[in-house]
Design brief:
Tetracycline Repressor, domain 2; mainly alpha; Arc Repressor Mutant, subunit A; 2 domains
Length: about 210
C-alpha cells in the first residue's frame, strides 16, 4: 500500500507502523469481501488484524477511510496493468489482444483483491464520494487517453459511456464467475469474445465517423 494514501489520518514513518497499516488494510479487504461494506465494523477489522481500536483510529478515522485505503491499494496495482497495456497498443488492430490482457488482468486482481471488487460492485457508479470512485475515474481517463493516442474521433461523453460499459460489464461478469475451474474458463472465454465484439464494433463506428 502507498504509505502516502489520503485515506490515512497519520502517515506511518517507522517500519513497524508501516507493517501495521498494511496488515490493517489487508484485513479490512478480507472483511469487506466476506461480509460487505455495510456489515463490516471497525472493531471487527481491529480484532482480526490484532491491533487495538486506538491503533486503528490513529491511522484510519472511520470505516470509509479503510475502504478508501483498500481502493488505493487496488488502484496502484491496476494502474500497472493499464500502463503495460498502453505500451503494446499502437493501433486498433491490436484491440483483441488488448481486451484479453485487460480481462486476464482483472480476473487475476479479482482473486487477489476480492474486497475491492465487493466495494466496487456495491457502489453507485455516479457517487463521486464512493471510496472506489477515484479508481473508476482513473480508468475512464485511461480510455480517454487511449482514444487520443489512436486518434479516434469521439467526444469525451462518448468515450466515457464506452469506458463505463466496458468496466462495469467486465467487473459484474467476473464477479459472478463460477468457482469450478472448467466452467470458469468457459465463461471467461465467452466474456472475452463478447467484449471483443462490442469494442471492435464501437471502435469501427468511431473510425467511420473520423473518415466521414
Amino acid at each position: 500500500m502507498d504509505t502516502q494514501s489520503p485515506a490515512l489520518r497519520n502517515q506511518p514513518r517507522q517500519q513497524r507502523s508501516i507493517e501495521t497499516v498494511a496488515r490493517i488494510v489487508e484485513t479490512a479487504e478480507s472483511v469487506f469481501a466476506e461480509v460487505g461494506f455495510d456489515r463490516a465494523t471497525v472493531s471487527e477489522v481491529a480484532e482480526r488484524a490484532e491491533v487495538s481500536t486506538g491503533s486503528m483510529y490513529r491511522f484510519f478515522p472511520d470505516k470509509n477511510a479503510l475502504a478508501r485505503a483498500v481502493a488505493d491499494r487496488y488502484e496502484a496495482v491496476i494502474t500497472e496493468v493499464f500502463n503495460s497495456v498502453s505500451e503494446v497498443l499502437v493501433d486498433t488492430s491490436q484491440l483483441p489482444e488488448v481486451i484479453k490482457l485487460l480481462i486476464d488482468g482483472a480476473v487475476a486482481l479479482q482473486e487477489v483483491h476480492p474486497g475491492y471488487y465487493a466495494l466496487a460492485t456495491a457502489a453507485d457508479p455516479s457517487d463521486t464520494t464512493a471510496p472506489t470512485y477515484p479508481v473508476r475515474r482513473a480508468q475512464i481517463d485511461w480510455f480517454i487517453a487511449v482514444f487520443a493516442k489512436l486518434e479516434l474521433k469521439a467526444s469525451i461523453e462518448e468515450v466515457t459511456a464506452f469506458a463505463e460499459i466496458c468496466l462495469d460489464t467486465t467487473r459484474m461478469l467476473i464477479h459472478r464467475l463460477p468457482t469450478d475451474p472448467e466452467a470458469r474458463q468457459r465463461q471467461l472465454v465467452e466474456i472475452q469474445l463478447m467484449m471483443e465484439a462490442y469494442v471492435t464494433t464501437r471502435v469501427e463506428t468511431f473510425t467511420q465517423s473520423q473518415d466521414s
